[in-house]
Amino acid sequence: MTYTDSRGAAAPEDAPPLIHVTGLRKSHGRHRVLDDLTLSLPPGVHALLGPNGAGKTTFVSILSTLIPRDSGEVRVLGLDPWADRRQLQRLISLTGQHAAVDESLSGEENMQLMGRLFGLSRSRARERSEALLARFGLTEHARRRVGTYSGGMRRKLDIAVGLIPEPRLLFLDEPTTGLDTRSRQALWDEIQALADQGTSVFLTTQYLEEADVLADQVLVLHGGRIIASGTAEELKAQVGGSTIELRDDAGHVCEEIPTGGEVDDVARVLHGVAESRPGMRVTVRRPSLDEVFLQLTGAPPTDQITEEALS
Ligand SMILES: Nc1ncnc2c1ncn2[C@@H]1O[C@H](COP(=O)(O)OP(=O)(O)OP(=O)(O)O)[C@@H](O)[C@H]1O
Ligand SMILES: [Mg+2]
């Protein structure tokens, strides 16, 4: 097998895929969460996209050695995450959806404690801790109790802890859920920098934009299996079509009209607009990932009706 990784470097001929899964099944009780899931991924950054309850955490937990599968073949860096879990645990790192740093300790103490747990010497643990805290902009907060950190700072610390052992593959389960736009952007920058240095990343997200910005490859999880995969651009192309945006004088979008994408189709819509609203400004754009999800699954990516009903 030949592939190039996300930075364009050719991988060795015999390098195993980053993640290789065939016919994976997993149920929680009587609820089948993953159903005949199959995929193969080269090194790089991959985003698993799915709404609440789609099975993202279940899948990441299987890949990262935490829980066994019911059936199917799974290889991560060429290893079986259940049978070879001790070996695999030395190569990967997981920052879970609900991460486990000790709130009563400072950032620095958490880092050094984890360094020691990962088997580093005291001085090496201190060195890694200082370097990673600096990298994530946490140096000035290093001596504060984590209990006093903001959500964004905590998330950065969670990820920094996961990087202590210098993993080849980092799993991030919803790394930016609940963060504001600025903290999210800051974390995206860090994840991108990691990827540029050659660390592979498998992240889960409910944010289409996050998958679009970060991932070489986007996987859409729905009904227990991967229903679509490819670059964000490929997914958009797969759905086809173009959306016509109508803007007012101030440039605000007043209406979005989906079209099949063929020139006749677009022309017909534009003709109608020219007659009924002659002053409007028009942009023709590719579908957003939101629209792609809607098209692929017949439902919006998050259960917004339920969320609205609850609020
Ligand atoms: N330990 C468990 N026991 C029973 N059911 C579970 C367990 N873990 C998950 N489930 C169920 O499996 C399904 C998938 O859950 P999972 O946590 O993998 O979804 P998710 O995509 O990570 O969702 P979210 O976006 O909310 O984190 C859900 O219906 C959930 O209730
Ligand atoms: Mg989850």
TrEMBL record:
Its main location: membrane. Gene3D superfamilies: P-loop containing nucleotide triphosphate hydrolases (3.40.50.300). PROSITE patterns: ABC_TRANSPORTER_1 (PS00211), ABC_TRANSPORTER_2 (PS50893). Keywords: Antibiotic resistance, ATP-binding, Nucleotide-binding, Transport. The keyword Lyase does not apply. One of its GO terms (molecular function) is ATP binding. This is Daunorubicin resistance protein DrrA family ABC transporter ATP-binding protein. It comes from Nesterenkonia aethiopica. The lineage of its organism: Bacteria, Bacillati, Actinomycetota, Actinomycetes, Micrococcales.
